[in-house]
Amino acid sequence: MSTPRTAFVTGGAGFIGLHVVRQLLEKDYKVRIFDNMFRGDRDAVARLAESGDVELIDQDVRYGGAVHAAMKGATHVVHLAAVSINKSEADPYESIDINTVGAHNVIAAAADHGVERFVLASSASVYGDPKKLPMHEDDELSPLTPYCISKRTGEDLLAYYQRRAGLSWIALRFFNVYGPGQKTTAYYTSVINHFVNRIKNGEPPVIDGKGEQSMDFIHVHDIARAVVLAMESEQSNVPVNVGTGIDTTVADLARILIDAVGADVEPIFNPRDVLVSRRAADTTRAKEVLGFVPEIAVEDGMTELIRLGG
């Protein structure tokens, strides 16, 4: 390609960000990581920077002037920076500041700079508790926490700057992301860690209720592929689910992890009332708009995670 493309990636030093940056480098993008390094992996960024195609701007999305100055010359923007869903309930003020004001700073700067494509990390949590499965992009949105509300607001702001300034965007509604390098704070990763620790100690995993709660686990490698496809897709200005379309129940997850560890234990069910929430993505639009089909089955991804971890 004659003109070099520069991707500006907020949160690029985080769990998902590092996977995205590596795939962008494979596609010959120059990458500018914008990250306050609160949770970022400085060593991993330093290794990537050795290629000469990655630079780190150690700054915060809450400062609009810093965002605007740092974005100059970027052709594409990926906005991943956010505080987690758990943190958003513990501290709604910080959550709104980073996830809503911060997102607006990045989106407004992208519109000002006339970037070719803006990819937003949105979330399946914008749907709230789904009334039906699989969850489709046109379903009613009912975000329940400041984090989820911010993600929906981010999508609305993209549509506003599309109307106002012609900004071309795709919002990717990530389902339950897992994979190597993940922090242990997310609810569903803590479930994975809890199960694995017990299984490795020869103890049975303990499941609340009948284990019918389900998630749509999507491997971080597939998430990063979807981001790169969204940067280059011909269609734009739509939200797109990124999941596998398969709802894996907590009971199924326990079985997958027991098999992966190779332990001789059976799960224990703790009989109590549990709010059974289920998640599975309708993946039709991802295939049609992005040409995206997940490559890593949950059994394979979880088994690899166990091997890497131990």
UniProtKB/TrEMBL annotation:
InterPro entries: Epimerase_deHydtase, KR_dom, NAD(P)-bd_dom_sf. Residues 5-181 form the Ketoreductase domain. It holds the Pfam family Epimerase. Belongs to the NAD(P)-dependent epimerase/dehydratase family. This is NAD-dependent epimerase/dehydratase. It comes from Beutenbergia cavernae (strain ATCC BAA-8 / DSM 12333 / CCUG 43141 / JCM 11478 / NBRC 16432 / NCIMB 13614 / HKI 0122).
